[in-house]
Predict the structure.
Amino acid sequence: MSNLPIKNRYDFVIIFDVENGNPNGDPDAGNMPRTDPETGHGLVTDVCLKRKIRNYIELIHNDAEDYKIFIKEVLNPKMKVAYDCTGIKAEKGKQKPEEIKIAQDFMCLNYYDVRAFGAVMSTGDHPCGIVRGPIQINFAQSIDPVVPQDITITRMARTDEKRAESGETEMGKKNFIPYALYKAEGFISAALAEKTGFSEEDLELFWKAIVYMFEHDRSSARGKMIMHKLIIFKHDSKLGNTHSHKLFEKVEIKKKDNVVTPRNFNDYQINIDRNLPSGVELIER
């Protein structure tokens, strides 16, 4: 597969669900599942989805050369490595634009998530500038309103002797949604891929990461999360052949006529209008 930057624009739709779990807790609401307060629809942030993709890339490539992950743990020392490896002097505020560009290219080459999603790397004594990534993902939103719940749980174990004096068990809470089907929309710019070096090989890895991102992210708190469909619209040009929203409108998800309260994926019907504009190809995974 070619390591050259991608030449086609892409738009894509991700469809996944959760059963008896919390797909994305809101720290501002006691870690309850995120919701839109006006509509009651569930939300999963782009940051949450990209974290799962990053984790899958790291799991598969194990921090290998060209596939490192930048957004994790401490950031500034990684930018220092870029300076050390390219021979740029670390004089804060005195770097020339061309020197920052060299360090930035080093980060794009070595860190998959930088060349895919972009990054703000302007902190510390070794700034590498700001990279606009070719891949952007919107919040995922549930097809129907959700009913977040919490249940009381007990635990036998105590953290210390003093707390054990109050009794044999302690009470806790577990937050979850009984069931919800979510849809997220995303975009891939070939024009920005040229600047970061995001390649056809990187793209294939990205699709694979989406398909399998929940398989290696299991947790009792998140319940059963399943990726059901990845719908890809491939344009035959770098700048695209039509507007993204017109392609997203081709995907319709609705409850089946006899369903009142959805409780599994089969309670929904997905219709795809395959009458696409000229120059756009539909790919399903």
